[in-house]
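We were asked to recover a plausible sequence for a given structure. The inputs and outputs are reproduced exactly as logged, with field labels preserved.

PROBLEM: sequence recovery
POSITIONS: 141
GIVEN STRUCTURE:
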């Protein structure tokens, strides 16, 4: 079994995942409601929203879609969870921190803690909460 995160956005899914593909690399697959092989009963103003997107990085997946009134409850933001990134070295932790915090808000600056070489908590400009955790610096012998 594998457990993967599935995020919900309110019209920003494509922009967010294009940014995540820049940051993390990987393969991006995207389908809009308008591209569905089956008719989706959805208002015209929502047809260009993302029905499903998947970013594959190695054997990891991050998936998401945009909300639409006909396809579920209204979007209320991402609450009560964070996407946790486990990184192997301080330079990578610093790179991810800078990229993800750009235009967002930082709850805890990237810093050494009693459990990690570096740790940070932030919410990116798309409203997604992230944790960056570097427990061992592979750059140090």
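RECOVERED SEQUENCE:
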């Amino acid at each position: 079994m594998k457990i993967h995160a599935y995020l919900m956005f309110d019209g920003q899914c494509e922009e967010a995942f294009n940014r995540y593909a820049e940051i993390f690399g990987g393969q991006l697959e995207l389908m809009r409601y308008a591209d569905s092989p089956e008719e989706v009963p959805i208002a015209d103003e929502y047809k260009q929203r993302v029905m499903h997107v998947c970013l594959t990085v190695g054997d990891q997946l991050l998936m998401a879609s945009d909300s639409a009134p006909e396809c579920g409850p209204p979007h209320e933001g991402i609450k009560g969870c964070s996407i946790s990134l486990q990184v192997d070295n301080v330079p990578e932790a610093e790179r991810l921190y800078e990229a993800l915090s750009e235009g967002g808000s930082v709850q805890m600056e990237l810093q050494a803690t009693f459990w990690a070489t570096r740790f940070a908590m932030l919410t990116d400009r798309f409203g997604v909460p992230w944790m960056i955790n570097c427990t061992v610096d592979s750059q140090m012998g």
